[in-house]
Amino acid sequence: MTRDYSQFFSSSLQGAGSERPLSKIESLGWQPFFAQQISVEEMAQMPPVRVVEVHRSALHVIGDDIDQTIPSRPDVTVGDWLLLDSKLPASSRLLERKSLLKRRAPGTDRQLQLIAANIDTAFIVSSCNQDFNIARLERYVALAFEAEITPVIVLTKADLTSASEDYLAQAEAISDRVAVVTLDARGEEPKVKLGEWCKPGQTLACLGSSGVGKSTLINALAGIETIRTQGIREDDAKGRHTTTRRQLHVVPGGCLVLDTPGMRELQLTDAASGIEDLFADLHQLSSQCKFGNCQHVTEPGCAVLQALESGEIDERRLKRWRKLLAEEALNSATLAERRSKDKAFGKMVRQVIKQQDKRKWDKG
């Protein structure tokens, strides 16, 4: 049976401001941004599905009366929208993304790793204990800014310390564009304090290291124990991996929440604008330096160093900015070089295949 999407299609293009109940795929995060990329006819022939899990050899996709696995693809990540080709699922069309979280993959080959796509809000989760790390929080915020995702810093286990206000003040100093919320990830606090970002049809991502309470937070938002949790090590407050893969969880009657394994290493790449947004004050100062290629280390006429000497900026924050700039530049350059080599290799392979085909044709 061919489903009629015409009525839904027109309502999607009108936006999400109406009071009508959300359709099934709208509750999965379908928005006008995606509807504008296709026609009613295409949608009827190839229904939209969302990737909710990525396995080594398969993708778990769900849609309107669709819940199945299809072959895995290296260009697809959790949160992506596909137009499902029922005859050739591996050839399903990948729709343009509204946002994309990515990092340089761990290891020495400097490949790009896709984390998640089409996220509206990123809950950057940290604990009010030894896990709290300003530099790590800054990385996640820069990652969200680069992807044009709304970042919200969520400080868990605030009920277990008498210094929660100090943690709050440090987190709020990261950027005046980032909301910071302290809470106990258990019970009703998450629903109350995070409710404005958890509206139906919205897609959220919980990012952070292991043991900070991401899974506990998602369970609280869902109102049911959907994800297994474990405690942290008492000696250093480090967490154990509970989540082993990235997975979108559908909160009954509400949003979708992405749970991610704790990332011990978050190397930024292609994130220059995100770093610029995070350190907007330092970026503005750098535009006043005498030399356009100033490294803000020893150069004469450096506006950044002058601000440091006068006490206008913090030296530790300046060092973190320099480190992120250097890391991003290195990773972006090496990835660009890798892409160039891959492109050249692909061109060579196509030429060889073309020549082989030509010889077969000449012989025939």
Automatic annotation (TrEMBL):
GO terms for cellular component: cytoplasm. Its cofactor is Zn(2+). Binds 1 zinc ion per subunit. Coiled coil: none annotated. Belongs to the TRAFAC class YlqF/YawG GTPase family. RsgA subfamily. This is Small ribosomal subunit biogenesis GTPase RsgA. Residues 117-264 form the EngC GTPase domain. Monomer. Associates with 30S ribosomal subunit, binds 16S rRNA. Its EC number is 3.6.1.-.
